[in-house]
Structure formats: structure tokens, C-alpha cells
Amino acid sequence: MPFIALGLMPELARALTERGYVEPTPVQAGVVPAILAGRDILAGAQTGTGKTAGFTLPMLQRLQAGAPQRAPRALILVPTRELATQVHESVLAYGKYLRLRSLVVFGGVGIHPQIEGLRRGTDILVATPGRLLDHAQQRTVDLSHVEILVLDEADRMLDMGFIADIRRVIKLLPPQRQNLMFSATYSDDIRRLAQSLLHHLAEVEVARRNAAVDSVEQRVYRVEKDSKRALLSHLIRDEDWSQVLVFTRTKHGANRLTKQLQQDGIAAAAIHGNKSQSARTQALAGFKNYSIRALVATEVASRGLDIKELPYVVNYELPNVPEDYVHRIGRTGRAGASGIAVSLVSGDESGLLKDIEKLLRKQIPQVRLPEFPPAPPPRDHEEPRGGMRTMNGSRQENTAGRPVGDRVVNSPSRGGQQGHARSGANHRLARGRSRGLSRSRG
């Protein structure tokens, strides 16, 4: 079925054709006609299923038919800066042949260019809740003309504690509007929010609730906690992995693992909430162009990262919330591509693994632990701590009875260390400039 059969105007179909999209995905086929008809939507679909286009395309068509205003007529709320940027890029791409203006605002960058953009006027505003409320408090944004509200990654926004901010934003909107709510997973909180927000809704669910995408091959390695770093380095080097997205629980852990991977000769960078927007943009750019081989991330990156055909996701540490496992591994296996999700599970994480398997309603296959060399000894300036590993991953004490290993390093490290990229050559971390404001007329 071609896109135009969904009722999309020729200008939108033309933009889709230029991007190589021929037929709609199941979620697009389900939501586009309902949105064009003015229905409220509650859509459950895994990441990588085309849901951004699912709400962007009919939203653009509905706005094109209306009268232009200086104040936003559509508001798209998203949880992270990265997702805000990517959604805005989709708005620009699909609306390139329409006379509609769009703007993106998020924190971590200067607010004054955003204020200037809002003063010039926009039809579509993509925003994170915190920065949007900053603008509302300063009275630099008028939300009284919003006709369409989109909550993208609604479950993630609730997980990140944005429910109060969302309710504050909703109070600033006109009561009569179309509401579109998209969520990769369903929970009681999502249901309650939907009941208070949506009316005469059409519910579209493409994948089973909280299910992991079928195109992702999942593996578990049972390994001692102190041997995880050596195993990860072995897998990346000896199995020639490139573009590996590695998840840790904490920002400190991400910084420490990044430095350790760099010491192992693997080009790595960290991305998390304490990184500046420019550093996050630079790390992501290096990862996409293969100068960074391993991107170490906290939960902030489990949503909003759009990396075409990302082949590998590694759970260096299992998440405390089982649903976050689905979000993490959903970064690979997108848009029909295959992917591999590897979890390094230590003994103290057995309960977390059981919770994840209960959510998935299946056991994740456990793979035999390969032989791998121990982690390299600490640098001269590092305090010995931890444990050397034998080839089978067992712990070895030094003669003084103190374990040998790496000292915890607090300072974040930069990318650009020597490592292996797709070409096998050494690269430097791609330099990029981050701009918090992007505005274009189609």
C-alpha cells in the first residue's frame, strides 16, 4: 500500500519518496488515517517502527490546511535533547514542500536564541518539558493556540519524573485540541495519564506490550563483576565489533568504563546528563562516523538516539527497571535491520535478569563464556585495587594479599584515544558544534 493511499497530500508523499520510503510501516498505517480524521491517539509501538513519521506526517497535513499564526499550533513534547533534535529533523524533512515553520527548544544551551526564534513565530514547536516551562515562566512562548499536542516517549518522560511538568504544560494549553500519545511500553501511570488526557481515542498497538523487538538477537554472559571490563574489551576487539552502544547505570560508571576502554586501545566516548550538549553532540557524531567505536551511555541515551542500523547494544550493567531493558536494546534492530543485544550479568544481578525475563515472558539464551585475557595492570599513577583475571575470568590476588586492578577515576575522559574503527585505522574524534536552536521554513 503506497503512502498516498493513507490520504496524505502529494507534497508529503514526494518528501517520503525522496527519502526512499515506499510503503508505510504497520504503526503508520494504523495512526495516520486516525490522526487525519482528528481522533486522539494512544499508540504503543517499539522504537524503530516509524512512529515519528506516524504522527509528523498527518500533523503537517492538518496544520497546512489551517491559517498561520505567530504562536505555535502544534507542540511536541519529548524527554531528551537528542530526541528533540531528531524529531525536529524529521519535521523539517517531511515538511520541506510545505509552508510551515518549526522550532526546537531544549536545555543545556543558551535560551536567548530560542527566545528570538519564538518571537519570529513558529507553527510547530518541539520541546523538552523543563526548557518549555522556562520559556512559559519568562512569557516568551504563547501556548494558547496549540491545536495538536504530541507526547512522544510518554513512558520515558514519566520514568524521568516529568509528570508534574507535563501537567503544568497541559494547563497552559487550550482545552479543545487533538492529543497524540506515543509510548514504547505501557504501565498503570501511562494508562492514568491517557485517561485524563485523551478523549474518543483510537488505540493502536503494533507490538505486544513491553515486548523486545523480534529482530534483536539477545544473549547473556554470566561473568564476575570484576571481569566485565576485560570481557567487553575482548568481545569488541576479537569479534571486530564496531558501533557498540554500552549501557551503565551511573554517570560515574560511564566515565570510568570509557577511560578503561581507551586504556585497552578501544576508541570510546561517554554520553550522559552531566555532559554538555556540545560534548554529547560531538561524541554522537564520532560514533556515527566510526571514529568512536564504543559509546558508553547512561539511561539518558536509551531513548532518542537514532543511529542507522546500529549493530550492537551491550548491557554492561542491567537496569533496575525491567522496562528500561526493552528501551535499551530497542536502539538496535530498528526499521527491519538485525541487531545483537548482549548482557553481562554478574551474580548480584540474577534477580534483575529474572525480572527482565518475566517481562519478556521468555528466557534470554545464555552463551558460554569465552576465554579472554585479564585486564591490563594499572597505570603507574593508579592505586592498585580490584583483581587480575586469569584466562577463565577467575580472580587472582597479588603477593601482599591486595587485589590488583584499576583505581576509580572520577574525571570524564575525552574520545580520540587510539582505537579500531570500521576501516581499522586510527581516527580522531569528530569535531562538531551543537546548536540548541534550529528553525527553518519549508
From TrEMBL:
Basic residues biased stretches: 428-442
Domain Helicase C-terminal: 215-375
Stretch list, region Disordered: 367-442
Domain of life, per lineage: Bacteria
Example of a GO biological process term: response to temperature stimulus
Renumbered ranges of motif Q motif: 1-29
Region forming the signal peptide: none
Segments forming domain Helicase ATP-binding: 32-204
Recorded GO CC terms: cytosol
Domain DEAD-box RNA helicase Q: 1-29
Family as reported in the entry's similarity comment: Belongs to the DEAD box helicase family.
Protein name: DEAD-box ATP-dependent RNA helicase RhpA
Species of origin: Steroidobacter denitrificans
